[in-house]
């Protein structure tokens, strides 16, 4: 009898669940491999937002589900995941990706069905410059981030001889060029502008620094190589500060460079959690639920998800309480106005935030994250 | 940049090139010895080198807190040599020997196997490190003792600086190379290796077991690569499971440059390549007015290499086939 009762409740629950229309939101970020620390924080930030919204959607008659995906920080895996996602008719929104190099090709796939994507982390200008209806981001842009670094280096730190290095990727080179151009406009000398794919032996660059005696070294690239460069410079007795972009913004930088990281500066578009307005509750819930602190992009993923959910709700209302199409959701998301935990979110017609925050961060000790030196709000550049 | 400024860093550049060259040389020996006895390009050798570097890190991880850094380093050399040597022997035993037994005359089959083994070892190490420590970028500790500039006491002649660890690279390399030279030319094992290299079946008729000798050759080459891995990690500090590939390709090139199968040639090739790369990386940008920066150092190094091989296809030291190993 008892078994039958359980079975009956099971059937009842099942039929209740199926009575509600399913809507799925996906997060796509690297969940395996060397960048999984950042990728996981995106997934968990999104998960938190969705779990908070589930009761709201239930009241409207929808079963809101979360579908986390792994893009392995690799473009072809990202595209394969994107293809799988667009084939699921219940899926109405994507939070992701971590890497611009993955997001650009993957969003071409989303675009075909106007599946809305809100990125918490992609800073490459091309993400939104293509002008797609469905592509938005809640973080800043490299062509603002580089100049912000240049202004700080030249105006605040009074550096005049700059040695600029990049890692020959779309991200690194673009950032380094934006930095170097602005620095030149401000009257500083770029003594050298070099690209290198080297991952372990930075001695030739260090020798060049010895000859040219720059007073600041800028590195456009990711922490895995940047950290090694900083460590080798310090071991060889070069003391000038190193500056970089949000590619250096990871606890791994500190792990790699160790004590040598002290004195390093970086610009980033995602501020440390304790500097964000209204993020305290998020940080507490995140820690309580997942047992660890939110890394760089967690709060941005949370906001990105809430933007999608707000757009979704608006689209459902406009559709008379029925499930909207992907295009309707994409249009509604572009119109969302929201006070998120990372500040006011409003999109311009390209999908950039009307105002984004840019942070200059200084590594005062060998613990992550560093100390915020400056927070600047910028609009995306007009042209482009 | 004035010429005086350019010249001021030349001695240091040559010294850095020397350090890099010694590391290449020690890895190149493994390629050249295996080629000498088997006629096989063992592409998995770059992974044996990486395993040495990773093993060294594990030694430092468990003993690095306190204790004499020199003693720990010595232990790291020994353990890395043992682990790398063992893995090299296992690879030969499990992958190459069965192929040899089949009597395949196709040289491409072992070559492709070697490439496969290389991928296998990379991802095996990645999996082990991920499960064991959940780490990808592995770090050698930065001891002040090892970073101390030994030339500062001598008043830094020519503006040179040489950290203790640089000195360790030079001394250990010379010691290992001298030891190998003695082993190959003065001992019974060395004689047997040379015999197998010259003619495996005839050596077999003279009472030498070629399988044992081949196994020993892998052991020696692998141990050298293991020590080289620790030296590499010590100087360049960061090691990942994929760190072996680049230096491995360079070392292979060095072996070809010196004349593959020839031991002094591998050393000379390593040193030449190390210098070319460092000089190119440092000066290319200055000499071309910034049009071609450090990123073209490899291009330059390999261009010069092609030129050398055009005029000496047998390599710098290679003479004829019967002189190998």
Automatic annotation (TrEMBL), chain A:
Classify the source by domain of life: Bacteria
May I ask which residue range the UniProt record assigns to the signal sequence? 1-19
Looking at the record, the residues that make up the Leucine-binding protein domain are: 23-364
Q: Does the keyword Ribosomal protein apply?
A: no
Q: Does the keyword Ligase apply?
A: no
Concerning CDD domains, the annotation shows: PBP1_ABC_LIVBP-like
A GO BP term here is: amino acid transport
Please report the name of this protein according to its UniProt entry.
Leucine-, isoleucine-, valine-, threonine-, and alanine-binding protein
Origin organism is Meiothermus granaticius NBRC 107808
UniProtKB/TrEMBL annotation, chain B:
Location relative to the cell: Cell membrane
Gene Ontology MF terms in the entry: L-isoleucine transmembrane transporter activity; L-leucine transmembrane transporter activity; L-phenylalanine transmembrane transporter activity; L-valine transmembrane transporter activity
Keyword Transmembrane helix in record: yes
Mark the transmembrane ranges.
20-41, 70-95, 107-128, 162-184, 218-237, 296-312
In which broad location class does this protein mainly occur, judging by the first location in its UniProt entry? membrane
The record describes its membrane topology as: Multi-pass membrane protein
Extract the PANTHER family matched here: BRANCHED-CHAIN AMINO ACID TRANSPORT SYSTEM PERMEASE PROTEIN LIVH, HIGH-AFFINITY BRANCHED-CHAIN AMINO ACID TRANSPORT SYSTEM PERMEASE PROTEIN LIVH
Q: What is this protein called?
A: High-affinity branched-chain amino acid transport system permease protein LivH
Q: Which organism is it from?
A: Meiothermus granaticius NBRC 107808
């Amino acid at each position: 009898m008892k078994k039958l009762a359980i079975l009956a409740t099971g059937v009842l629950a099942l039929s209740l669940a199926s009575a509600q229309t399913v809507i799925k939101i996906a997060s796509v970020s690297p969940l395996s491999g060397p960048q999984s620390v950042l990728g996981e924080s995106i997934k968990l930030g999104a998960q938190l937002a969705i779990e908070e919204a589930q009761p709201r959607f239930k009241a409207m008659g929808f079963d809101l589900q979360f579908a986390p995906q792994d893009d392995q920080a690799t473009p072809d895996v990202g595209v394969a995941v994107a293809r799988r996602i667009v084939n699921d008719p219940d899926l109405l929104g994507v939070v992701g990706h971590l890497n611009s190099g993955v997001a650009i090709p993957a969003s071409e796939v989303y675009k075909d069905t106007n599946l809305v994507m809100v990125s918490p982390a992609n800073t490459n200008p091309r993400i939104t410059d293509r002008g797609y209806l469905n592509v938005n981001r809640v973080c800043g842009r490299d062509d603002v981030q580089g100049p912000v670094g240049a202004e700080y280096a030249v105006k605040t730190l009074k550096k005049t001889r700059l040695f600029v290095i990049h890692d020959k990727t779309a991200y690194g080179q673009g950032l380094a060029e934006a930095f170097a151009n602005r620095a030149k406009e401000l009257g500083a000398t770029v003594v050298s502008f070099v690209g290198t794919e080297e991952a372990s032996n930075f001695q030739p660059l260090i020798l060049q620094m010895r000859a040219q005696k720059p007073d600041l070294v800028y590195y456009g690239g990711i922490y895995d190589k940047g950290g090694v460069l900083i460590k080798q410079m310090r071991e060889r007795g070069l003391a000038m500060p190193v500056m970089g972009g949000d590619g250096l913004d990871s606890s791994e930088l500190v792990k790699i460079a160790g004590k040598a990281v002290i004195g390093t500066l970086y610009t980033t578009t995602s501020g440390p959690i304790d500097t964000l307005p209204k993020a305290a509750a998020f940080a507490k819930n995140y820690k309580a639920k997942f047992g660890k602190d939110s890394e760089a992009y967690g709060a941005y993923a949370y906001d990105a998800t809430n933007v999608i959910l707000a757009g979704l709700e608006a689209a459902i209302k406009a559709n008379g309480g029925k499930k909207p199409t992907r295009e309707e959701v994409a249009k509604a998301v572009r119109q969302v106005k929201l006070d998120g935990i990372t500040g006011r979110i409003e999109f311009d017609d390209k999908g950039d935030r009307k105002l984004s925050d840019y942070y200059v961060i200084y590594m005062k000790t060998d613990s992550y994250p560093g100390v915020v030196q400056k927070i600047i709000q910028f609009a995306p550049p007009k042209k482009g | 940049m004035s010429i005086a400024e350019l010249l001021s860093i030349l001695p240091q550049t040559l010294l850095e090139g020397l350090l890099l060259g010694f590391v290449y040389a020690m890895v190149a020996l493994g390629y050249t010895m295996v080629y000498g006895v088997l006629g096989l390009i063992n592409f998995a050798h770059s992974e044996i080198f990486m395993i040495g570097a990773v093993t060294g890190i594990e030694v430092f991880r468990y003993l690095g807190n306190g204790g004499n850094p020199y003693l720990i380093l010595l232990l790291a050399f020994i353990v890395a040599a043992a682990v790398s040597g063992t893995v090299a022997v296992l690879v030969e035993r499990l992958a190459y020997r069965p192929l040899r037994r089949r009597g395949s005359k196709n040289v491409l089959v072992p070559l492709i196997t070697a490439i496969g083994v290389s991928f296998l070892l990379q991802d095996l190490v990645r999996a082990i490190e991920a499960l064991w420590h959940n780490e990808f970028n592995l770090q050698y500790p930065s001891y002040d003792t090892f970073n101390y500039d030994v030339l500062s006491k001598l008043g830094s002649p020519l503006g040179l600086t040489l950290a203790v660890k640089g000195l360790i690279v030079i001394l250990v390399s010379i010691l290992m190379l001298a030891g190998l030279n003695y082993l190959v030319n003065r001992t019974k094992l060395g004689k047997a290796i040379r015999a197998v290299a010259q003619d495996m079946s005839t050596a077999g008729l003279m009472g030498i077991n070629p399988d044992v000798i081949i196994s020993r050759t892998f052991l020696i080459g692998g141990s050298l690569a293991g020590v080289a891995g620790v030296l590499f990690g010590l100087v360049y500090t960061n090691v990942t499971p994929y760190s072996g590939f680049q230096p491995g390709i360079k070392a292979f090139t060095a072996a070809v440059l010196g004349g593959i199968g020839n031991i002094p040639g591998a050393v000379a090739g390593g040193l030449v390549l190390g210098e070319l790369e460092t000089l190119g990386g440092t000066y290319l940008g200055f000499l071309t007015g910034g049009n071609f920066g450090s990123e073209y150092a490899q291009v330059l190094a390999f261009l010069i290499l092609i030129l050398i091989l055009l005029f000496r296809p047998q390599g710098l030291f290679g003479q004829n086939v019967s002189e190998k190993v």
